[in-house]
Amino acid sequence: MAYETPHIRVSSLYRGPRTTGTISAPSVPRNPTNIPPPKPKVRAVLYNYVPDHFDEIELRVGDQVQLLIEYNDFLDGWSFGTNLSTGRKGVFPLDCLIDVTRNS
């Protein structure tokens, strides 16, 4: 008499039907609350700024700057963004900027 080993699926406790092909995760909406993402803040340069360190960018009066990160947690008055006039990204002091998106 030959001894047969039982066929047990060790990898899962699920005993449902076997599937073929790929199994995909359920679709999850990227923005489940349908709240539009905030618009990037754009500021105008009011005072020139000459960088002191490699990660800083130059600002000239009249340039437009897009704020990507405001360091509110540190309260140090600096931000990270893009000078839209030159295309360069880096950090800069917020003191040199004025809000151009205010409603008058």
From TrEMBL:
Gene3D superfamilies in alphabetical order: SH3 Domains
The record places domain SH3 at 38-102
Task: Name the keywords, alphabetized.
Answer: SH3 domain
**Residues in coiled coil:** none
In terms of InterPro entries, this protein maps to: SH3-like_dom_sf, SH3_domain
Question: Which Pfam families does the entry link to?
Answer: SH3_9
Per its record, how is this protein called by name? SH3 domain-containing protein
